[in-house]
Specification:
alpha+beta; GMP Synthetase, Chain A, domain 3; 1 helix; globular
Amino acid sequence: MPSSPRFETILFDIAEGVATITLNRPDRLNALTTQMSKAMLAALKTCARDDHIRCVVITGA
């Protein structure tokens, strides 16, 4: 399986059929920005294209 894409404002990991998106701006209490929203959308599109992903977890750092 190819490696997960890299983003600046979120962490994105795929392991054993579970994708984890971690909001990674703890200094700003993980408040959403336009850049973060775009990164989350890109990560979710990656998940939609991967038939091995059964679950997506969204969490904060």
